[in-house]
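Hello Y.,

Per our agreement to keep a running log of every chain we model this quarter, I'm adding this entry. I've kept the format consistent with earlier entries: sequence first, then predicted structure.
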Amino acid sequence: MGGRISRRQFLEGVIATSAALYSPVVAAESRRLRHLTDRVKLGKSGIEVSYLGFGTGTKGWNKESNQTRVGIVKFARMVNHAYDLGINYFDVADIYGTHSYLRAALRHKPRESYVIQTKLWYRTCQDAWADIDRFRQELETDYIDILMIHCVDSAAWPVDLATFVDTLHTAKEKGIIRAHGMSFHSLKAMSAVPENPFVEVALTRINHAGAKMDGTVSEVLPVIRKIHDAGRGVVGIKILGEGTIADSRHESLAFVLGLDFVDAVVIGFESAEQVDDIVRMGNEILAE
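Predicted structure for the entry above:
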């Protein structure tokens, strides 16, 4: 890509046209990141992760994803390559079918050296406790770092999902999970977060182009900022729009790195080369 603009120039242009309440550079320098794999805190959750997380749910559905489709051997090589680069944050989910894959990949790594984030598909769940026990067996771990309710899209979730919320609260009290949260698929559902303490970590869809997001960039940014200001961990997903804006990944990375209210990001990788590319590109942006 020729004639790349700097992160500062890009942020000034995008934010100036998308949300007037942000300063031109959106406090890009306040993050103090030097490398994409530096450790960051997810709000007040007590969880510390690499800024860049490894996602396993690209085109994920019905117990498979693009990451499982490469086969368990290649999957393990990708994960271990990412781990060796300093990535310690791994996002899986029941519906992706990636629990056993991650278990195999990290079996010989110290458990405390990495963070597992998984998600419960509430729409078909019959017994949340049984699912949590199964998750731990599939992941071969006594505890799950972050357990989320997956794909929440209703503003009424504090009432509609109260049973699941109570279960995850109890699981945390028992030390079975370290933090709980939700992945969101609507702006109205996200808007309910600041007033409800359950969501300690929120997965929010964000990129510079509005691809695969829950609204326009100017609509989504203020909501995410409010979640962050309430002390919750904000993790950006769909940074590359599930691959639809991969050709403009430099712009999208520059954009999200300039958002001081996005604590970390998760990107779905399908090869070790893709991991290298994003880490290199992110580090170059941070050095600008």
